Amino acid sequence: MLWAPVVDVSLTAKRWFLIANAATAATLFAFGFLPLSVAMIPTFGTLVLVNSIAATLTAIATNRMMAYDTTDADKGRAGGWSQAGNLGGVGLGGGAGLWIAQHSGAPWPAAAVLAAACLASGAALLFLRDPPRPAARPSYASVLISTGRDVLSLAQRRIGLLAAFLMLLPIGSGAAQNLWAAVAKDWRADADQVALVGGVLSGLAAIAGCIAGGYVCDRMDRKRAYLLFGAVMAAESLVMALGPRTPLAFMVMATLYNGICGLAYGAYSAVVLESIGQGAAATKFNLISSISNVPLLMVTLIDGWAQSRWGSGGMLIGETLLGLGGIALYAAVAWSTRGLTWARVLGRPAASAG
């Protein structure tokens, strides 16, 4: 949130992407050559921080280009492909890096390959249109003020309010996928099976789910699609909780869960793109993204607490109840606020009903 407004008004989105992508690749490359010792922990910590900030900048620049380079008819597909790279990259990139490191006998080949893959992604910029930027260079304070106005315009439209509220609810969070390694023993799955589910299978399932979810969102109301995928995830969690406890069942159900998570994440991006418009697009996208991290963290903590108290079955049933409860709450709020905006609630005219 602190530097997203800068990306909105300075340089260009493509230049920000190239700068941040180069920093991401450089830090990944450095990880492969530093000695693994306790004395190097501060250095690793600094590199992780730089890498994380660079990653946010690539995401901010990408989100800005998506907001400008898509029409309303294809925002679902754009969101789906974006999340396919996000979720799929974690599984496939992490799996590939681990495989290379294990078979090369040294960490640097994996770091070099992953850094090269990051740099190669910049080739996609050749096919994208750069969003316009202000002719004059405003001060950071004026940037924040103008951005605040754009964010308030989002809050004055019902679609923006509902999108933000939807992202606060524990719907389609996919929190259980963060805990597969911890609960796999209940299905008697070994380390290789867990690694397969969390790596290649997870990446492939997530990519397929994200792309499919994005295409569905271009053919129906996007918020309803998000709710639908959340309901499907809740149902799958219940089936896994009550189903057989075998290694094969774990692999099938966990992979299916990861694929459904892709559906929900693709719909998430589609809902956000639909709601933010173009003004201060990067800032508004990341504002809602920040909100969406709240339920992800909370559901993960609740899952961990429920698993320690009632076992893996209780954890999955609890996630089912949270998802269905969130869907019911959103439906009640959406129905009761039809035609309302904060501007009308406060007695002020709004520019758009949204």
Give the overall shape, derived from the CA principal axes. Answer: globular
Considering the protein shown, what is the CATH homologous superfamily of the domain at 74-122 and 141-336? MFS general substrate transporter like domains
CATH topology of the domain at 74-122 and 141-336: Growth Hormone, Chain: A
What is the number of helical segments per DSSP (H or I, 4+ residues)? Answer: 14
Q: How are the elements arranged and paired?
A:
Layout lengths: L3 H6 L3 H19 L9 H29 L5 H30 L3 H13 L19 H16 L2 H11 L11 H4 L7 H8 L1 H18 L4 H21 L4 H30 L4 H56 L5 H4 L9
Describe this structure in words.
This protein has 354 residues and is mainly alpha-helical. The chain has a domain at 74-122 and 141-336: MFS general substrate transporter like domains (Growth Hormone, Chain: A). 75% of the residues lie in helices and 0% in strands. It has helices at residues 4-9, 13-31, 41-69, 75-104, 108-120, 140-155, 158-168, 180-183, 191-198, 200-217, 222-242, 247-276, 281-336, 342-345. The chain is globular, with a radius of gyration of 21 Å.
Short account of what is shown:
This protein has 14 helices and no strands. By secondary structure, the chain is an all-alpha fold.
Features:
354 residues; mainly alpha; Growth Hormone, Chain: A; 14 helices
